[in-house]
Fold:
Amino acid sequence: VRERNFRFLTVLARVVEQEPGVRVVLKPKASAEWMVHAGFLSQEPFRSLLAPGMREGRIILLDPSAGEGCSAQYLIRAAEVVVSSGQYVAFGSVWAEALLLGKPSYVFAPTEFRRGPVVSELFDRWLFDDEAALVACIRRTLGGASDHAPDGRLQQLLDPFHDGRAIDRLRDAVLALGAE
Structure:
């Protein structure tokens, strides 16, 4: 997981370096275990990787333990592009929610998910396991030359009832998991 986090953050640092107008907001999972989820960001090699962008104010790390935070929904609405990282799953609710809201959304996902029957078809368009390919995709999207909208098959996967309520069902499912 540590290597994957470093690779993901390398992607974000490259985009900030190559795209002068880009600002990245890092929102690790907000929980009582902040240090478990994001404490590594203050350690090497992560600190050195993020330091230039943070000094320029172009990489912002939200630390809920310091009272800094906001909802994923707010960040999705404010973002031009949403990029998340799957650690134990191929993708999370942030990716799906952003797509359903019409936002370009991509995931840096573990390579082992390429072998999954449905997920494998999402690679190289929405899910990436190669840093250079993800950076290129983000840059194309920022330049207005990318097709990020869900195709019919992905739309069926995300909104099987075609009623536009997929986000509500997704949120309900996530809240139900948290209540257990």
In short: The beta strands are 24-26, 59-61, 82-85, 105-108, 127-128. Residues 29 and 138 are 22 Å apart (CA to CA). The longest strand covers residues 82-85. The chain has a mean pLDDT of 83.
